[in-house]
Amino acid sequence: MTESWLTGHLAPVPDEITATDLAVTGTLPAELTGRYLRNGPNPRPGEPSKHWFLGHGMLHGLRLRDGRAEWYRNRWIRTSGFTEDARFVRDDLTFDRTAVPANTHVIAHADKILTLVEVGFPYEVTPGLDTVGPCDFGGRLTSAMTAHPKQDPVTGELLFFGTGFLPPYLTYHRLSAAGELVESREIEVPGPTMMHDFAITGHHVVWLDLPVVFDLDLALTGGGMPYRWDDGYGARLGVMPRAGGPVRWFEVDPCYVFHVGNAYEDAAGRIVVDGARYRDADFAGLWADIGGAPDPARAAAGTESARLHRWTLDPATGKVSEEALDDRGVEFPTHNETRTGHGHRYLYTVADDAIVKYDLERPSSSAHDLGEGMAAGEAVFVPAESARAEDDGWLLTIVSDRAGQGSELRVLNAADLSLTATVHLPRRVPAGFHGSWIPDA
Ligand SMILES: [Fe+2]
């Protein structure tokens, strides 16, 4: 049997290409002048692949300018694991944080474009997608770096964390708006977990300490992703003042969360966190399907899908309230990042057959149907230059034929999810993880 992540719209592509003057249907807004970059795993042809998350990172980039799609190109990220087959665990059992796939996200901060994966250092790339090399911020980064840092839209800082298989299991970092690593702080947690994302608010950081834990036996024997669900670990969200101070932990119903949508402090001082939540059975199904350790009994009751969920944490009472926001299976929640940590009305998500927009103020949702047999990647929100409303802007998403017949970039009007333009791509883009719109300065 061929692994699910090597077939159809997930199948890797065999090589790197460059194409220019791409065909466009509809009208590309002229103000969309910049680059849309997206990262994802792409094992080399014939290379063994034990888990969807482990393939070498490949960037797919589109250059848009003045209403034209000037180029598409795809490039593997030249990590030491890619070019020299360097191993993450050295013979002396220390970790080589440059020997990582760099396959999960790509962001721009200060003067750098960084590709990210949560077990190691970022790799810097050029605007043309050539690899510059690993980045440890002048030697100051002493842990791995999450693939989901958060840029504060008010201060311009980039807040992030790194996890470790050995203590310290969790380290908080703060990068200034100018790109200098100005703070690193160890955070106490009970053990090493697969902490993929976190949240920020105006005054706090929110940790997700959830029961998908590192398993040394799996690491020594499996060669895949050494994590499994552990009923004994418990589940908690931690609220930590950004200015320093202890973490306040809130017990929550056990679940797993790859992705937070956004978080904020409400008028009563409560911390509101929206994210895509997996029940244990749903996580078990997904995890086995992408190469993780199977748990068939648990998976039998699941759907492999996450659902949008809200946790409200009240520091005054120590209480948590939880609310399922919808029963539709969705992932990759995104928002208008000028609102990160400061309250959002809208979230954009990816369902099996649609891009789904949630209005959380007047609870409702709307959808852009992808069409028969199509699948979409994360929808990145780009604010309009003259934006007056939170959803004044566009959504960029790569949509692919599930049978592997091709891909296109769709530009949706974020207000009503209508199709503004389609850029026809010269080749299929494998379903991957996260990307960013990087406007020209
Ligand atoms: Fe992610």
UniProtKB/TrEMBL annotation:
Its cofactor is Fe(2+). GO terms for molecular function: carotenoid dioxygenase activity; metal ion binding. One of its GO terms (biological process) is carotene catabolic process. It comes from the Bacteria. Binds 1 Fe(2+) ion per subunit. Its EC number is 1.13.11.-. Signal peptide: none annotated. The keyword NAD does not apply. Keywords: Dioxygenase, Iron, Metal-binding, Oxidoreductase. Fe cation binds at H148, H196, H259, H434. Belongs to the carotenoid oxygenase family. This is Dioxygenase. It comes from Actinomadura macrotermitis.
